[in-house]
Amino acid sequence: MDRNSVIGFVLIVAILAGYTWYSMPTAEQRERVQREQDSLATLMIEAKAQEAEEALNARKTEVEQRAKAEGSIPSTVIVDGDTLDADSVQRSALSKRYGIFEPSAQGDNRSIVIENERLHVSISTQGAKPSVIQLKEYRTNRQTPLILADPDSGIFEFRFFLGNLDISTKDLFFSAEKLGSTGVRLTANTTETGKKLQITYQLDPENYFMDLRAELIGLENEVDARNAVFHWDLVAFSNEKYRQGEMAKAGVYYKYFSDDRQYLSESDAEEKKLEGRTNWVAFKEDFFTVGLISEKGFSSSGSQIAITPLEDTTHTKRYSAQLFFEMERGAVVDLPVRIYLGPNHYGTLRRTEIPQFDRIIDLGWGIFGWMNKWLVIPIFNFLDGWGWSYGIIILVLTLGDQDALDAVDLQELRFQCENARAEAGDRSDHGKIQGRGYVEKATGHHGPVQESRGQSCKWLLAHVGADADPVCHVPVLPGKYRIAATELLVGR
To answer: Rounded to an integer, what distance in angstroms lies between the CA atom of residue 278 and that of residue 273?
Structure first.
C-alpha cells in the first residue's frame, strides 16, 4: 500500500475504534441488561412448567369426565360378588399396558434445572426430557434468551420392548435426584424390586457438552438391547433477522466411522437410512448446533435421520433422528449419548476432538478453504480477542485479503516472465520480451513504457525479477498494481 492508503486505513480504524468505545455500554448497564435477560429466561422456564402442569391437570380431568360419561370406570365395580374401587380397575388397565412399569405410568410433571457457565437446561420429570435448552452467552436478534429448540414441539424418547409391550419414556413419570448443580438422575420404578429405568443428565462444568445415559437396571433378560432406540425430533426457532440466509445454512450432518462427513439437503425435505456405523449426527442451525455423539457408534440397522423445512416464520426446520445402538444379544442395556449444545465456532468445534466435527462449518473448497482455516479464522479470533467490533475486523480482513491477492498476481507475473525469458534464451543475444496487458501501479504514469524507460519500467523489472531491459509494451495506470490481462510474446 502507498502512503495515502496507509493514512486512510489508520484514520478509518481510529474513527471506528473511537465510535465503538464511545457507544459501548458501561459495566452497570451491562449488569442491568444481564439481570433482565436472566429474569426473562427464568420466567420462560417457569411459564413452561406451569403450562405443562395445567395441560396434565386438564388431561386428567378430561379422562375422568370421559370415563364417567361413558360409564367405563364407575366409582365401584362388582366382580364375582366382590366390590372393587375405580383405582384398582385403573391400575389393572395400566398394568396391562405398561407391565411392571405400571407405578411410573402416573405422576406429576416437574421441572428440574441443571446449569453450568454456558448452559441452562430444564429437565421434565414426565418423559425425562430436556424441555428448555438455553445458551447463556448468546441472545437472539431481538435480544431475547436464545433457546435451541421449541419446548412445545417434537419428541424426545427412549423406546424398547418389554416382552410384547412397546414402552416409551415419554409416557412415564420419573422421580428426580439432583447431582449437584450440573446433573440430575431420573428413575422410573417398577413393581419388582431391583428393576428400574434410570436416565442421567450431566453437564460438563466448563463447555457445551451434556452427557445423557439411559440404563435398564436388572432387565437384561427381559429387554433386548439391540431393539432399544433413541428418538429425538426437534423444531428449531428462527433466531436471526435474515431468515432466508438462516434457512439456507440449516441442515443435518452425519459421519460414518469409515467415511468423511456427509449431510442431507439444506433446501428440501429429505430422509435417509444410515448405511454404516455412525460416529455422530448433528442438527445444524445457522449459528448453533445440537450434536449427538456415540463413541461405540450408532447402528446402521434401523437408524435413520430426516429434515423438513417449515413455512411459519417462528421456526426454521424440523430435525429428526432415530438411532439404534451397536449392542450384542444379552448385553446390559446401557445407552450413552454425548450431546453438544453450542455455537458453530470453528475453534470450539475443533477442540472437541471429535473426528471432522469442525466440518459442520463449510470453509469452502480448495485454496479458499485452506486460507479460511489457516489465515482468516486465526486472524479473526486474534482480533476478536482484543475486543474489536466485527465491523472493524471484517475491514481489516478485507484489506489484508486484497494485499494477499495482489501478491499472488505479482507472483503470477513473475512466473510468466521467467517462462518467457527461458524461451527467449540468452539476453545477450538481443532476445526481447514484449508484454501486452495492464499492470496498475501508483506512479501516475500513463502510456507505453518504452516511451519513458524510467521509473515504471524499472519497477516492473525489479518486481518480476527480469535481468534484462525488455521492450515492454505495458500501459501503466494509476492505483495498486494488478494484472488485468497479460500476454507474453517471445521474439529474437
So the answer is: 11
